[in-house]
Specification:
Blueprint lengths: L1 H20 L3 H4 L2 E3 L4 E5 L4 E3 L2 E4 L6 E8 L2 E7 L2 E2 L7 E4 L3 E4 L8 E8 L7 E11 L6 E3 L3 E3 L4 E6 L8 E6 L2 E2 L15 E4 L4 E4 L8 E9 L2 E4 L3 E6 L3 H27 L41
Parallel strand pairs: 2-11, 13-21
Antiparallel strand pairs: 1-4, 3-9, 5-6, 5-10, 6-7, 8-9, 10-11, 12-14, 14-18, 15-16, 15-19, 17-18, 19-20, 19-21
Length: 307
């Protein structure tokens, strides 16, 4: 009898120890876990957010999903149906997973799975999952100068602002990819260019004749890539384009000045006044006649006057 009591006491002690250590999960209540707390997905592809119930005693627990974006929560699964912006684009899968059929960039957010089990000792648990949707880059905007002069510096630009994560940029010359460091390639070892893969800039410190040709840029991330149409850059020994533009400016200026002068001449802006206008000088007295002052009202005959 004494031995039986001692055995029962040991059994109760063991059960209490196991319970305190968590070796009997069902008595602890609902416990959730997930396969991935940080999930990446490509836009327009399916993705499943896992909410696995490791332990529960309640037969019909209450399951809810919330989307938290910019700190503001909204329902995704509530009262046994999909709601919000995932309506008609997702479904609940056993035990409590959410399957999104075609993810979009607007789905990038945090998602919280909540399970309430009223019959369990621990009647509530939740788990937070971060979803990031990769977005394929669109066709980048490329800027390639049409003509440059040998020995001068120039820059080619490439920009794309739709892709997520931010894409890396690569440049191609005559359908051949330019190496990141020209010194590592025997073909480009004498080139003076540098590429910034983060901003898409291709800079030449000193342009060579060999740098002429067709250029295009490619933007790439984990979701895909896109490239701009090829553009031609010509390299001249002399700045023909600059000389032409300067000559054009000089000819235009000459025509404008000439036109202004002609217009002014037509309007008589440069016409000189005649000698008779406002001219009060007396004519030269070579006829032998001596004229008196104007206020005398007459003139006197000299002895040389001949009738």
């Amino acid at each position: 009898m004494i031995r039986c009591k001692m055995a029962m006491a040991r059994l109760v002690a063991c059960l209490a120890l196991y319970t305190s250590l968590g070796h009997i999960p069902s008595s602890l209540g609902v416990i959730l876990r997930t396969t991935d707390k940080i999930v990446w997905a490509n836009e327009f592809e399916p993705i499943e957010l896992t909410c696995l119930i490791e332990s529960i005693s309640t037969n019909n627990p209450r399951i809810e999903w919330k989307k938290i974006k910019n700190g503001v929560p909204s329902y995704v699964y509530f009262q046994n149906k999909i709601s919000g912006d995932l309506e008609r684009r997702a479904q609940l899968r056993e035990p409590a997973n959410i399957l999104i059929f075609n993810t979009t960039r607007s789905d990038t957010a945090e998602y919280r799975c909540e399970v309430a089990a009223i019959d369990d000792q621990r009647d509530f648990d939740e788990i937070l999952i971060s979803l990031a949707v990769r977005v394929k880059p669109v066709v980048p905007r490329c800027s390639v100068p049409e003509a440059v002069t040998v020995g001068t510096s120039t820059e080619l630009r490439c920009l794309e602002n739709e892709g997520f994560p931010a894409p890396q940029y690569r440049w191609f010359h005559n359908n051949e990819e330019l190496p990141q460091d020209p010194k590592n390639s025997p073909r480009f070892v004498n080139s003076s260019y540098s590429i910034n893969p983060d901003t898409g800039g291709l800079k030449f410190r000193r342009v060579r004749k060999e740098d002429a040709g067709e250029y295009y840029c490619q933007a790439k991330n984990d979701a895909g890539h896109a490239q701009c149409p090829p553009q031609i850059m010509e390299v001249y020994d002399v700045d023909i384009l600059g000389i032409f533009l300067k000559s054009l400016v000089a000819v235009t200026l000459f025509i404008c000045v000439t036109a202004c002068l002609c217009h002014s001449l037509k309007r008589g802006c440069f016409h000189k006044k005649g000698h008779n206008e406002n001219n009060y000088n007396w004519p030269a007295q070579n006829d032998g006649v001596e004229y008196g002052d104007a206020d005398e009202g007459h003139f006197r005959h000299k002895s040389s006057f001949v009738i």
